[in-house]
Amino acid sequence: MEYAHQVVGLWVWAVVVSHLVEHTQGQDPTLQQVFRFQTTDLYGLQQLYAEWNKSTPDLGKNLAGWRQIPNLLEIGPLPEMPCPCYSESWQGVLCLRQLEPVDPGFFYQLYNVWIVGLTLTDSSLTGSLPPAIGNLSSLVSLVITGNKGLKGRLPKELQFLGFNLNILDLQGNGFKGSLPKALSSLQQLQELDLSRNKFGGTLNVDFRKMPWLRTLNLSRNLLGGSINPDYFQDLGQLITLDLSSNNFTGPLFNLTKSPSLNSLNLSFNSFSGEVRASNILNFTNSFNLKVVDLSNNSLTGLLPDFSAWTNLTVLDLSYNQFQAAAFPVWIKNLQRNLQVLRLKGNNLTDQFPNHFLQDFKHLKILDLDNNNMTGTFYIQDVIALPLLRSLSITNNNITDVVYNGSLFKAIERFGINLQGNPICHQILPHDYLKLCVCEQNCIDPEIIQDTSERSFIVIATSVAGSVLAISIFIISLVFWKTKTEKQKLQLQVQQHFAEKDIKPTIFTFNQLRNATEDFAEKNKIGEGSFGIVYKGHLLENTEAVAVKQLFIRNQQSITEFLNEVVVVTAIKHRNLVNLKGCCVREDQRLLVYEYLDNNDLARHLFNQKGKSQLLDWQARLNICLGVARGLHYLHTSAQPRIIHRDIKASNVLLDKDLQPKIADFGLALFFPDEQSRIITSEIAGTRGYWAPEYATLGQLSEKADIYSYGVLLLELVSGRRNLDHSLPEHKVYLCQWGRDLHMQSNVMELVDPALSLSRDEEVAVRRIINIALLCIQVEPDRRPTMAAVVATLEGSLNLEPEGMRQVSQEIEEEILQDAIDLRVFSAQTMGGNMGSSTVSLQAR
């Protein structure tokens, strides 16, 4: 800092040729543009660059434009030097310029320039945040996020940004140590986000000195101890407060002077003592508060009454130590807006509140697991809730369930889970109602009776991108065909789609050839057994698309393909890759999908060079849930229902926010709703992900996808492939190793060593491993449905239901016994092209 202090107040000149810079409106374009920077700003940038360029990979991408600026103190007459803004923009640097009056006879326009913004997100930065950050005293916004290699303590010199800084966002890095008291000097802050780091110690920042603060997020750190209640007084502008997933203790602090508060999350701490909502929250402006999460603490006394906060949409008071009491009647006041209600593990007693819930028209999630509620559960009292998607009452004392309607059509949009209640202790094979609510195995008895009279029809098609399942639509533009023949085929296609409600987009071959620069090698982003994928830009749309050029392997008729195109185009889900359209010539078939920025999951998990952009546990957990949702949609909501048959890491694509989308449905099987299992002689998919009954007997059902999903979960946890012959013999087969570790009560050895987990994250990891082990059981009927998996993950990201908590010793012994003779049939036996490889469940 000494050098910086020597140059405070000086300016550095930078000359930029006029045609390289956007001129200020009304100024003479023949004049040169001259920018004058504060030396402290440039010095600060140079010190950041000096710290980060030591080990940050791919500087040309992650710090594009950044370079050394020499001779900061040698200020001669207008020397030329690199300019961080305008002509040679440095990635993430934002500047503000102001025209300075000069003598009319001068040959230049003079601008004073201040560096007001620095944004470096997911830039793989390594090192620390150097003290010289304090030299950038004009910063209004400092956003450096998602750089796990950025470690060390925050410098106290951040206090020198206090006069201007509005946004300080350092979430998702690797910072540690105590939060510096100097942060209290940032009096203009409106947003402070230090979440997902490793900050520890007590909280010693006085937020009262930040009167404009609107967002405060310190979640998912290692902060602890009691909180000085004075630090949160007079935050009149505060909208969002998130201190979740730390180790804070002591009583809750007073927020009654924060009337604008919209979201409060204090979950997963160790706050204690009795709670009165009116003592901690502002009552007069109660209409602002929408989200309250006080779950997983040690709060005592009566369940706090939030009836005055009638605009609440989310209320979670789960897993505290409140006194035993009946379901609170004051919740009736929240019926107008409440969407999520979680009261798990709170000693709730008395009868289940059946009729009480009928008026909660916006309710989406109701979770009352692990209480002591009794009586009968009447499904008709909740079935009419239009938005309900998950209702879980596991581990209570419900003794009966009643429903007299067509249950299976009525609850197809959401799951009901009563596992762990007395009603579920004994279930007869044909007790379809109990099978549905206790095991999420919902089978329509009318369909079961009718299946003996139906023939099983399987439509093998290609969904969202591959040739053996749903190939999409054919338009032949053949150069050696006559114009009449081309027009005839075009008319056939148009007439076919004109009769359908769903009309896929038709692209010409020239459009796609131009979009991909004639399918240039530089635009190639992937290749598989069924085609090559290119990145492209459509002329009429600047957004990127993925163009898949399929290998032609069959002679399916035009009509069949067009029918399949209609089916695929209708499939829309946030966790499924979206098909935009297609183009077919006689010798070319091309599919056009949305382009996803972060490629596939396999490259993030298994590419060692990509470990610098490590997927943290929260990202992996989101991927678990997203893939589960996508599969659940394919299995239950798609028309016709779909078995993917090739769920694996390389078929899970990630968007810019790392949200997953299932891709490459090239091996998917469509099957009618009345058919739950079929036999096939064609074994498709990828070795290591095959379900045993599918690999050995050709039995295919949705449980085959669930097996593959379980394998994928283990890969997400471990960061390795399911088959790896470079490892010691007992670790080669990931599934077998996982079972062995489970029986040794040592499943945490599976965890990717590159992950740094908090205590709460370790709990979540164990839960995911246990769900994976349930999914990869040898007996298909023992595997959960995707509805059960989704309900488990959506219902609680921190504590699984009792039924998903562990794989029993009895089941484990059965699995190992079954695995002894488990082998994949050869291609000659099964009629497929499989060779003689063995499945990943071989016995030791």
First CA to last CA: what distance? 62 Å
Secondary structure class reads alpha/beta
- The CATH H-level homologous superfamily of the domain at 614-639 and 677-830: Transferase(Phosphotransferase) domain 1
CATH classification, class level of the domain at 614-639 and 677-830: Mainly Alpha
CATH topology annotation of the domain at 614-639 and 677-830? Transferase(Phosphotransferase), domain 1
Q: Which CATH architecture of the domain at 614-639 and 677-830 would you pick?
A: Orthogonal Bundle
Signal peptide: 1-26
Keywords: ATP-binding, Glycoprotein, Kinase, Leucine-rich repeat, Membrane, Nucleotide-binding, Repeat, Serine/threonine-protein kinase, Signal, Transferase, Transmembrane, Transmembrane helix
Organism: Ceratodon purpureus (Fire moss)
Binding site for ATP: 548
Outline the structure in words.
The chain has 844 residues and is of the alpha/beta class. Helix 15 (702-718) runs antiparallel to helix 17 (759-775). Among the domains are: 1-160 and 170-185, Ribonuclease Inhibitor (Leucine-rich repeat, LRR (right-handed beta-alpha superhelix), Alpha-Beta Horseshoe); 459-594, Phosphorylase Kinase, domain 1 (2-Layer Sandwich), CATH 3.30.200; 614-639 and 677-830, Orthogonal Bundle (Transferase(Phosphotransferase), domain 1), CATH 1.10.510.10. It is globular and about 95 Å long. The chain has 20 helices and 40 strands. Strand 31 (531-537) and strand 32 (544-550) form a beta hairpin. The strands form eight sheets. It has a 16-stranded mixed β-sheet that branches. The protein has a seven-stranded parallel β-sheet with strand order 6-8-10-12-14-16-18, with no helix packed on it. 22% of the residues lie in helices and 20% in strands. 42% of the residues are buried.
